[in-house]
User: What shape does this take?
Amino acid sequence: MSIIFSGIQPSGNLTLGNYLGALRNFSKIQAGNECYYCVVNQHAITVPQDPKMLHERTRQLAAIYIASGLDPEQSTLFVQSEVPEHVQLGWIMTTLSYVGELERMTQYKDKASKRGDSIPAGLLTYPPLMAADILLYQTNYVPVGDDQKQHLEITRNLAQRFNRVYGDVFTIPDIYLGHDGTRVMSLQEPTKKMSKSDDNTTATIYLLDNPKDIEKKIKRAQTDSENSVHYDVEQKPGISNLIEILSAMTDQTHDEITAAYADKGYGAFKKDVADAVISTLEPIQQRYQQLVGDPELDDILEKGAAKAHAKANVTYDKVCHAMGLYRK
Ligand code: ATP
Ligand code: LTN
Assistant: This one.
């Protein structure tokens, strides 16, 4: 049995990319492991958030976790700000971090470059908070997309740095990349990843999109003029992205899909991709609608926070003792 930890920021509406790259893997690995899944709302405030929206999205993300297959009996589901050890250990990890290594993070460089002269300091100190999230639970594996590799690497470095100076307190975590490493691309610019913060909403399928919108977006997805369905990321990024999506939805290989559409055009192909996406998302959407306004969700999150707190507190106590942060 391994300990698993992952988190998603409640900073926008979740996309098909988040589902295939993250959420789906979360539920696949929950059986037989000790899993913690967190709504990382304190990470979201490293850029300005509207308070009412942040509150709503926190609840929505928790409901989506469950709707997409996380079983609260098997996995611990909670909100980061309800377990105070995250920021407490986050501060300690900040004191162990070097400004130079934080400035080298590509996510920091990307996000900071959009903020002119007023770069929030929390954008720079985002990775030590993420390290604290992971290390508090003595995590073995962290399921995330490959864009998070650098953050995982700094987490490992910080854990090793701590253990070297203060003794063996932390387990050194590994990244867990989904078996097919699905990376869903934008429907309008298929060389760029599909992202919840894309301003062009026709480029993105949101998990809560209605069937009509999904059909429209896929119908208008950028392709090429060849009218031949086969996988070639360089020459046919649009069609290859749709093949990837269909393959992830139906478990068919690229070759099987190519063979099935050998004498069919893009119209029929796109219709089938849309149908596959709609039938995968429909049950998730139904479960989401039942849950989001249900007090049962609060119950689940309260129990989750209590369980997470109990585990996190053991590690945090060890850290404080190792560092001399105690009085008696
Ligand atoms: P933003 O646009 O705000 O940067 P995002 O949509 O990239 O957000 P994150 O909150 O950064 O999403 O990521 C949540 C998880 O979803 C991460 O593990 C990330 O790797 C995964 N993920 C995000 N977009 C995709 C995608 N297009 N394909 C596969 N996985 C993705
Ligand atoms: N940085 C991650 C979100 C995140 C996370 C974590 C992921 C915050 N803390 C701990 C895994 C483990 C992102 O932007 N996707």
Summary: The chain has 14 helices and five strands. The first helix runs from residue 16 to 28. The pocket of L-tryptophanamide (ligand 2) is lined by residues 5-7, 9, 40, 43, 130, 133-134, 142, 144, 148, 151 (CB under 6 Å).
